[in-house]
Amino acid sequence: RPGDPADAVSPRLAPASRVDSARQKPREAWEYLARCLPGSHSLLRLRNLSTGRQDPRRFAVLLPAAPMLCRGSLRRATRFGRLTFHRAYGDGTDARARFLKPLDARHSDGWDILNNPLWNKGTAFTWAERERLGLRGLLPAQVRTIEEQVSNFVTQLSAMDDQPLMQNLMLQDLQARNETLYHRVLVDHVEKMAPLVYTPTVGAACQHFSSRYQRSRGMFFTPEDAGEMGVMMRNWPRSETQVVVVTDGSRILGLGDLGANGMGIPIGKLALYCAVGGIAPHRVLPVMLDFGTNNESLLRDPLYRGYRQPRVTGDRYYALVDEFVRAVFSRFPNVLLQWEDFSSDKASNLLAKYRENYLCFNDDIQGTGATVLAGVLGALRLQRRPPEDIRSLRVAVVGAGSAGIGVAQALHMAMQQAGLSAKAAYSNFYILDQDGLQSKARFSSLTEEQMAFARADLPDGMALEEVVEQAKPHLVLGLSGKRGTISEAAIRKMAAAVERPIVMPLSNPTSSCEITPEEAYEWSDGRAIVATGSPFEPVALADGSIKTPSQCNNMYIFPGIGLGASICQSETIPDSMLYESAVALSRVTDEEEMARGSVFPSISKIRQCSHAVAVACIRHAHDLGIAKASPGCDHNRGETYEQWVTRKMYYPEYAPIYTSHTR
User: Is 198 considered catalytic here?
Assistant: First the structure.
């Protein structure tokens, strides 16, 4: 009814006379809807509107310009049949019509569809679908919308708020039953769900992976598969794959070697790729390179599901990885391969070997580095300083593994972009490991990447407190994976020398965080700018003000990189693309968020972040001439990069389903 308030709890039904006339005069029904749409508060639902055979569909028309639709939880504004008016981000700028393409369930129907998580809608199957798919009698009578299903599931999940591991298992169960609903729950409640499907809860889920294993997801490769991996890739049932996330389980978060139990990491990452990055769930593949484990407790565990042998090492290990890489790109030539949670002694080597010839990147090295760079640029914005000021920052990095060195390399590259020479930029860094400051004196034990940052002007093995006293760094990064490695004395000395010290403890899970935000604020008299790897609650300061520590989580970066690079079919992911991604992300944070002390946008804007990062990646790939695909295909001439990414982003909603199966 025109004139209904936009914030009405329940949609109003159109008068019966209107419905009856619509049945007889569909053209007039369209005209009636057109008259309703211009009003800024129109809200209309027509039931049982059909002009042919029995088709008891429901139609809901919600005006795209209605104020209620500006909230992020309401992405879909209008549906009439298969035509959907929907707002991309709820930012008031994008109201457009999008056709919901019907999906062919191929040769499945009835019970098979209900047991296929990619097709299953549960009680949301319409009566028309139940009829044509052979579902009559297999479902309860009530037809629910996806919004009602989301609300019901979230209510059940909230009853377990004190048991995050159980909530993770509930989400796994939902994913195994209904992929669309699972990802819709993640999209609509990303702030609540992200910590449950990934850090910090995913660490505990990995530890219990074998004992709670229920359903196969992804692919596993062992040393016994040598020579057969190319054939095995043909066993994967999807004909198109956009992103592959692979791990060998050798360094899972801060938990160490978890062997095949580390499969929870690729699964969790790809859940975020789908919900946050807009990659369709049937186009992702989690992979475990199960080449053994050196974790004695797992080798003795009778429930352990993995390859029960010590880890393969040396040339044999790299030969197996090489066969896997060739098998993946042979089956899916344009796929993006993401390396995840490989131990420090292998991660850099694998990235260096394959990054120039294949579309791949390492999230622990490059993703973390780009995310931290975005946070540092955001911290400069918060201080009203230009991005070029990054060249004057002195940086202490606590943790010299692949993640720590990767972050240092990203910041070093950014300093060069700001005008410093490579040598001058290296002089801004102080890298510490478990033995203290790394210096040139340790040349025989450091990697080539570590040697580039090693100091020649300070004694080897200096403690963090001594480094802070001598160097007076503006930024301290925690990537050690150990609680307490950033001490009170170090922060107090840093705060005495720097007006706004930037403190970024990035290790996961929460128990491994080097310093808590509360400690950082307290020891710096509330002046610290804080970003953490795991989520923390806002902190009340002594003066009564509230500070909100940002979560410097890789999910701000990697979904957008994967989306953009795979859409434009980039040949590689150069460091300059990661830099452009970080710059794009740093610009998404608004003034209100910065006023709360945040250097990253709210998690509720995460899809907007992915969109911005993807556009930056695509634009840069075309500038470099390494993109094999361009906007404007599929009869969309004149399409901008922004429109192209929006069109390609998956949004979890139920599309009409039909089947070519003949009963």
Answer: yes
